[in-house]
Amino acid sequence: MDIANISQGAVDLQKGRLVHKRIKTHEQSNVPTIEYKLWLETLDLLRKFRSSHPDLVLVSMKAIHREPSPNQAGLARGPAKS
Known about the structure:
Elements: E1 11-12, E2 17-21, E3 33-37, H1 40-49, H2 61-64, H3 70-77
Antiparallel strand pairs: 1-2, 2-3
């Protein structure tokens, strides 16, 4: 799992766990959920730096203070039509 893709729902700070389905197969019905126990140092850092972003746990400071670029906005709508 790429740290840039960790969703808010995947982190349980109360239990100290990261819970998610495998990225490549997460849409299949029989994919197991994987649960990792987080190190205390990791929990402390997540508590300190967890973002208020609605989906992502960690974002850069630049991402917090800027609007999406036209390219990023286009990706949200899907590929451009020719």
